[in-house]
Write a structure and sequence with these properties.
Rossmann fold, 7-stranded mixed sheet, 6-stranded mixed sheet, 551 residues, alpha/beta
């Protein structure tokens, strides 16, 4: 992906400086021609002049005048004239944007400006209200789709698809639940030049929210690209490096841990909460997220949320933290607690994230506490905060509002990788610093007789992390594997050809499968099966089935 200074070309105040560099002075407004066929010919002449202009300023001027002049013929009662005008308007708007985006700028805001000496009103139409700071603009076609293995979801129509990227807001609690990379959204641009308007209008609008644009008695469906915006934002992210480093005692991923909204919060759309796996990051969900945004039905019913968390802590500790991230997000977006979005959360987890999704979908009862301790918590001596924290870690119910879960390549019965040489090596280097572990260590030392003998030394020394709690013989893990959700749940697993017993290379097939699943799909793939077309298609099928069942 190109750098922001060369490939992610943006509009802004530098636009005016670029266009003022030449002495050629255009008229204050595009000419108004009464006859639409004459006006269409005038627009064609301007397009020819733009294509042959010798400098950027003149070229930008001609493209702008062309797009503005072609607007009125789009309302022609003659279908051939209207269609030709719309095609020409698109061509000229794209030419304008290609020209002015060659130089970077500090940002772009709605409001009046001047392009090639012509007064223009910039209109952010139905664009996210999270854009409180100047935005960068890029042509969607210029953003590579490598992140999605080249799969780009586009809709042909009127206007030029764009991406918008701006620093995240800082004026409301919800802002902390937007990605640190910023706010990035899809958009489409076109020029309007209505009769009697004081100046042409450059519209930058949300094509999904708007659907179409009306010119006279005609309506034109808007072009859209629902893929480029995320690829644009992801190109600025350091998450790929931070995921692994967060497993190996790095703190940066921990500082940004939380639940992040990838689109504007909608109180009526159900969240699909995606939880990555061990040493991974939310970019793992690029293909699945892209597929949901590219599906008109699913994007109208679901909103995509990505979980970020440091994966080095014990499984039950991570479950406790993820619950806290969910709570914090709901407090920010729905402090009253009455939005419809709360009812119908879908969890999608890969690997360790799938185990955590299951633990967020079950009632623990006393099973986990009894696997670790010989006495009820009421018999324990210790600091009140330590006791409360231990109680919350080992005792929990299904997270409120979760109604479906999808587990992908998840080691519900542990993984032999955690038992072998690689597991021992990982256990020696994976970070163990966690306040929850410190609390457990203090309680285990003060109440040694109440801790199960085979766990006593581990708890007293705090020798716990995500790897140790995935060992197949780990008592608490074994107790947890028997906890099955009371909601519909689904399994997607990988199985490499020629392996006996079947495995995806890290998780045995037997460990990934659960009894009672509403559906099970085994794909001939490795542990990164979430990237396979079959797995993505299966998640979409499950979501569509969920929508159909809710109607």
């Amino acid at each position: 992906m190109r750098s922001s200074s060369a490939g992610v070309r943006c509009l802004g105040t530098a636009l005016c400086a670029l266009l003022a560099a030449c002495a050629h002075a255009p008229p204050s407004q595009p000419p108004v021609v009464a006859d639409v066929s004459t006006e269409l010919e005038a627009a064609r002449s301007l397009a020819y002049s733009a294509a042959h202009a010798r400098n950027e300023r003149a070229r930008a001027e001609y493209w702008l005048r062309c797009a503005a002049t072609a607007y009125a013929p789009m309302a022609s009662p003659r279908a051939d004239v209207a269609s030709a005008a719309a095609t020409l308007a698109n061509r000229c708007t794209e030419g304008l944007l290609e020209t002015v985006l060659r130089r970077s700028s500090p940002g772009w805001r709605p409001g009046p400006t001047r392009i090639a000496g012509v007064a223009v009103d910039v209109d952010f139409r139905r664009i996210s209200h999270y854009f409180s700071k100047p935005a960068q603009l890029a042509l969607a076609a210029d953003v590579p789709a490598d992140l999605f293995d080249g799969e780009r979801h586009t809709t042909p129509g009127f206007g030029v698809p764009l991406t918008l990227l701006a620093p995240r807001c800082d004026d409301r609690p919800l802002c902390t639940h937007l990605p640190p990379e910023g706010v990035f959204r899809w958009a489409t641009a076109w020029i309007e030049n209505a009769p009697g308007a004081p100046m042409p209008r450059l519209v930058i609008g949300d094509p999904v929210a708007l659907g179409d644009v009306q010119v006279g008695a005609r309506r034109y469906p808007l072009a859209a690209d629902t893929s480029a915006f995320y690829a644009h934002g992801a190109s600025t992210s350091t998450l790929r490096r931070l995921g692994v480093w967060g497993l190996l005692r790095g703190n940066e991923i921990g500082r940004r841990a939380g639940l992040y909204l990838l689109e504007d919060y909608d109180p009526n759309k159900r969240p699909v909460v995606m939880i990555h796996g061990l040493g991974s990051n939310p970019l793992a969900w690029a293909r699945l997220s892209n597929a949901i945004w590219g599906d008109a039905l699913l994007r109208s019913q679901f909103q995509v949320w990505h979980m970020v968390y440091q994966t080095n802590a014990p499984t039950l500790v991570l479950r406790h933290r993820l619950r806290g991230y969910l709570d914090a997000t709901w407090q920010a977006v729905d402090p009253e607690g009455d939005d419809a979005a709360r009812r119908g959360i879908v969890l999608v987890g890969h690997s360790l994230g799938g185990v955590l999704s299951r633990l967020l979908s079950v009632d623990s009862g006393e099973a986990l506490w009894s696997a670790a301790f010989n006495a009820p918590i009421g018999d324990f001596a210790g600091d009140e905060d330590d006791l409360r924290l231990a109680d919350q870690v080992f005792h929990f119910g299904r997270y409120p509002g979760v109604t479906r879960a999808i587990f992908i390549a998840s080691p519900h019965k542990g993984s032999p990788t955690a038992d072998g040489f690689l597991g021992r090596l990982a256990r020696s280097i994976v970070g163990q610093r966690a306040p929850e572990i410190d609390a457990l260590r203090r309680l285990a030392r003060a109440n040694a007789g109440y801790v199960k003998e085979d766990l006593r030394m581990l708890y007293q020394r705090g020798l716990l992390n995500s790897i140790t709690t995935l060992q197949t013989a780990q008592p608490v893990r074994k107790a947890a594997q028997a906890l099955l959700p009371s909601i519909p749940y689904h399994t997607i697993a990988g199985s490499l050809p020629g392996r006996d017993p079947p495995t995806d290379g890290f998780v045995p097939l037997d460990s990934a499968l659960l009894p009672g699943a509403a559906s099970t799909l085994v794909v001939e793939w490795g542990h990164d099966v979430y990237e396979s077309r079959e797995a993505v298609a299966e998640v979409l099928r499950i979501l569509r089935e969920d929508v159909a069942g809710a109607r």
